[in-house]
Amino acid sequence: MDFLLSIYKWLSDGLNFVLPIALVVVGFFFFFVTKGVQFRLFKVGIKNLLSGDATKSLDKTNISPVQAFMTGLASRVGIGNIAGVASAIVLGGPGAVFWMWFAALLGMASAFAESSLAQLYKTKNSEGQFVGGPAFYIAQGLKLPVVGVIFSICLAFTYGFAFNSIQANQIANTLHSAFDVDTRTTAIVVTAMTAIVIFGSLKAVSNASSGLVIVMSILYIFIGIAVLVVNYDRIIPALETVFANAFNLDAGLGALFGTTIAYGIKRGLFSNEAGMGSAPNIAATASTKHPAEQGLVQMIGVCFDTFIICTFSALIILTTGIYGDGKYDNAALTTQSAVVSLGDWAAIAMSIIIFLFAFTSIIGNFAYALSGLKYFTQNKYVRFLFTIGVCAIVYIGSVSSPKAVWDAADLAMAIMTLLNLVAIVFLWKQVKLIIDDYKRQLHKKDLDPEYEIEFNSDLYPVLRDKIYHQSIWSRKLDENADDGIHKTTGYKLFGHNDTENHR
Q1: Mean pLDDT across the chain, nearest whole number?
Q2: Nearest-angstrom CA–CA distance, 313 and 77
Q3: Does a structural domain hold residue 500?
Q4: Does position 32 have pLDDT exceeding 70, yes or no?
Q5: Is 497 within the bounds of a domain?
Q6: Residues 65 and 159 grouped into a single domain
Q7: Which pLDDT band holds residue 496 (cuts at 50, 70, 90)?
Q8: Which of 38, 85, 126, 237 is a plausible cystine mate for 108, CB 3.0–4.6 Å?
Q9: 319 and 213 co-located in one domain
Q10: Which residue ranges does UniProt annotate as crossing the membrane (predicted)?
């Protein structure tokens, strides 16, 4: 056992060292590949997200772009936004906040790449639902199905069991601390609520996520604004502290500087999940006309998570100044900072917010885990058993410490992320093709507002899947259409309708 633990620690330490570096390098890489998509097409992404078409699915089976955005946001916006920011400030100092922002800017390009690829390589199951994600573009784009299996195992375990155990534990501990609610009572209630939602369809999960994300985000932003109003004279000094400490080389000849960067980048990138390979699984389920559309939508999600929610957390903590006392950490530091500024009622409000953040993460995590499961099978009985297992782990996580599961999840999550980063780098030509095609059509739409932007893989033979099936984005070309895109006569669907069979 000691030998196995030493091997685990060696792997975990090595991957935790490599991972932040890899995330930054890949973020820079796709910044150049996409020519700064996070800046050049940010307004387009916002416009697409707010358009009426984004709320509509192209069919009755699959979810809309907005539903995919909300489900992805439900997983991104979680306890990490409250506890993760506090932990980064305690361990890395106020300067860590700057590096969280830096990480988010880079991560937006990676998020665009992975979610666009998920759309490009998505397929349909026997029920007509879109499925996809890193496991699919690893298997089809890189022709490495075994690696796709490894990724999907890590995804299903990490999000279905490990992360949900931790989220449930945070709910139980928060309610016990604030209201002295017995953890077993919380376990029963949270497990029942989880079961009601996740035993439904993916649309039910998305609808629940959409409503709760809006409620919890508004509540948390309200708390943040209230704290900043009370501490308005400390906002500028707090921001000055962030920038001053971000580049502070005085302490320990740069040792503190290195810690600040490491924790800022690590917490930032893992908070917004850009590059992890999680968001692409829900991005693939959206019904869209062009792969780039969902890439832009998920890119906006990274921005909202870090620059809005995480920034509010940082300012709540930094404007009160109690982070230097060493008495509080994680969610307790954020909660106590709100209490110091607003009074005891803030403890109740923060408990409700933490509950909503954690519960929506459970729902969003299940959607991701289910995507990993669907890579193996579409069997409804397997899904039923898996769903029961998720409910069981929610109960277990509520009444016990999730440390052992979290330790195992760290390794699975690191493997999952590195596999995804390597995959999207090797598929960079496809990413460039997608964004170039989208920009070309945006230009046509500027000239003709009636022009319909649609992707057509028939124009790009390099995208044809040579192993499994022809691309879902294939159309029957209309010879009279402009580039075969402006007018189409319909989809040429797959050659099969069952992901399980073709594997």
Answers
A1: 78
A2: 12
A3: no
A4: yes
A5: no
A6: yes
A7: very low
A8: 38
A9: yes
A10: 14-33, 73-92, 142-166, 186-205, 212-230, 299-323, 345-369, 381-399, 411-431
Sequence-distant (≥ 6) Cβ neighbours of residue 276 within 8 angstroms: 269, 270, 413, 416, 417, 420
**What's the domain range around 466?**
456-491
Task: State the pLDDT at residue 74.
Answer: 65
- Angle made by CA atoms 153, 156, 162, in degrees to the nearest 5: 115
Reading the block at residue 426, the tokens are 């090797």
On whether both 328 and 289 belong to a single domain, the answer is yes
Strands (E), 221-315: none
Residues 325-356 have pLDDT tens digits of 777 767 778 888 888 889 888 888 888 888 88
**What residue type is assigned to position 174 of the chain?**
T
- Say how far apart CA 195 and CA 489 lie, in whole Å: 42
164 Cβ neighbours under 8 A, 6+ residues apart: 361, 362, 365, 366, 390, 393, 394, 397
- Pair 195, 262 in one domain: yes
Q: Are residues 299 and 415 both part of a single domain?
A: yes
Instruction: Give the separation between CA 234 and CA 239, rounded to whole angstroms.
Output: 9
Q: Which residues contact 395 (CB under 8 A, 6 or more apart)?
A: 168, 187, 188, 190, 191
* Residue 141 in domain: yes
In a domain, 502, yes or no: no
Are 291 and 96 in contact by the 8 Å Cβ rule? The answer is no
Report the predicted TM-score, pTM, of the whole model to 2 decimal places: 0.80
Question: Structurally, how many domains does the chain consist of?
Answer: 2
Which of 361, 400, 406 minimizes the C-alpha distance to 184? Answer: 400
